[in-house]
Design goal:
single chain, 483 residues, alpha/beta, eight-stranded mixed beta sheet, globular
């Protein structure tokens, strides 16, 4: 007899915690794992005495689900998702729903959605953010896919999701096919940027100002009470004061090589594909790549020299400037992320609700912050906002922060401290606000060596011209194209 409201496949930490979250909200959940012994371990362990049904085969698993059946996959992204889809489809009926809750590439989700729908079933690809703690207590959830599936999963997803400060569930429908996983990908790219900006600020405090871990802990704790109030600032403050059993600060014992799972890289690749200048997130990804070259950097440190200067100003003034630089750079990072979503929505014909996206990111997820409420308000003021930098609140904030922002970048350069994302943010801001950029010279160069043509300021857009720069090139020009 069908008993379970939803079933979940994949009993790693995220899968187990989501099941426990669902059960705690009043839902009966069926579970299955390819390694069946994990099912028994879970049922006899964390799931003991709860409304959770352990299954030893997919047939048994499907058989205990209420119709329309809702099957959530929490397995490794890539081929394992396709394998389970292919195993499940013959066991399901028309109208049943397969949900991929992993970090899948949104292009895979577009393909899978079309395939599952062609078999008469429904498909959802959903981002789930918040890590293992969020999965257990309430994550941010970003579903997209077959529109007919939303009404069936909405009561479950919105009940298990985190709550924003105003009580709204941090879960809303993103759009068709791959929209949910695309929004989650951009979320992760922004997360890369947020983390790298904080790291650059930390290095400037430590190396440039000579602050102790305890002093930096106090600074970040103070910032967490102001406009930078966020989960990542909060945990940074916590990290800086933790010592091991020998009394050593743990942060000082951690090797400076960063890992990454690929979603930041995907975000940058997508930005290149749709022609959006995601400069800050790209620098955040490359900063992780550079950190991984530990042995090369150790060797380079013995051979390459830099400035001998030391900071001679007032530390309190520089800390104020650092806060302003971090805030302004954060605005640019999110502006770039929403630029990417806007371009992708146009290309894929998604109707993304940018205010709703900012709203669901306010709780549960890694980038949650009070800042996101301001983004939500910006899109509520103007749903067609071209760029966050043009919103009155953010325009005013960046202008106010600009002096400190520039002083931080200048100081970092003088001291030889790398600040790739904060510097990239300022360069983007200066480029975006310039009516005229030197691309006229670039186009002249392209036309000179490749006859690629150019447009003229005194002629209508869309008319292309070629100059015989040397007198030897002739009049033949290349066709125009945009990459």
């Amino acid at each position: 007899m069908a008993q379970a409201d939803i079933g979940l496949i994949g009993l790693a930490v995220m899968g187990e915690n989501l099941i426990l979250n669902m059960e705690s909200k009043g839902f009966t959940v069926a579970c299955f794992n390819r390694t069946v012994s994990k099912v028994d371990d879970f049922i006899n362990g964390r799931a003991r005495g709860k409304n959770i049904i352990g299954c030893h085969s997919l047939e048994e698993f499907v058989g205990v689900l209420k119709k329309p059946r809702k099957v959530m996959l929490m397995v490794k992204a890539g081929p394992p998702v396709d394998e389970f889809i292919n195993h499940l489809l013959p066991l399901l009926e028309n109208g049943d729903i397969i949900i991929d809750g992993g970090n899948s590439n949104y292009q895979d989700t577009i393909r899978r959605c079309a395939h599952v729908e062609s078999q008469g079933k429904l498909y959802i690809g959903t981002g789930v953010s918040g890590g293992e703690e969020g999965a257990l207590t309430g994550p941010a959830i970003m579903p997209g896919g077959s529109s007919g599936a939303w009404e069936h999963v909405k009561p479950i997803f919105q009940k298990i999701a985190a709550r924003a400060p105003d009580g709204a569930p941090c879960c809303e429908w993103m759009g068709e096919n791959g929209a949910g996983h695309f929004v989650k990908m951009v979320h992760n790219g922004i997360e890369y940027g947020d983390m790298q900006m904080i790291c650059e600020t930390y290095q400037t405090m430590k190396e440039g100002l000579g602050l102790t871990n305890e002093e930096m802990h106090k600074v970040f704790a103070e910032w967490d009470q102001e406009e930078l109030d966020s989960y990542l600032i909060e945990i940074t403050a916590d990290i800086l004061q933790v010592r091991d059993q020998d009394g050593n600060y743990v942060i000082d014992l951690i090797l400076d090589t960063a890992g990454q799972k690929g979603t930041g890289k995907w975000t940058v690749i997508e930005a290149l594909d749709v022609g959006q200048p995601l400069t800050l997130i790209a620098e955040a990804v490359f900063a992780r790549c550079l950190s991984a070259l530990k042995e090369e950097r150790v060797n380079a440190s013995k051979n390459l020299t830099g400035p001998k200067a030391s900071f001679r100003g007032k530390k309190d003034n520089m800390l104020h400037d650092l806060r302003q630089a971090l805030y302004a750079s954060k605005i640019v990072s999110y502006a770039q992320g929403f630029m990417l979503m806007r371009a992708a929505a146009k290309e894929h014909k998604w109707n993304l609700n940018y205010g709703a996206i900012a709203s669901i990111w306010r709780g549960g997820c890694i980038i949650r912050s009070v800042f996101l409420g301001k983004i939500q308000e910006a899109y509520e003021r103007n749903a067609g906002l071209e760029n966050l930098l043009l919103d009155p609140f953010f325009k005013s904030a960046v202008i106010k922060a600009q002096g400190g922002w520039r002083r931080v970048v200048t100081t970092a350069v003088k001291l030889g401290i790398p600040a790739p994302t904060i510097g990239a943010a300022l360069s983007f801001y200066d480029g975006y606000r310039h009516e005229r950029l030197p691309a006229n010279l670039l186009q002249a160069q392209r036309d000179y060596f490749g006859a690629h043509t150019y447009e003229r300021v005194d002629k209508p857009r869309g008319q292309f011209f070629h100059t015989n720069w040397t007198g030897r090139g002739g009049t033949t020009s290349a066709s125009t194209y945009t990459v």
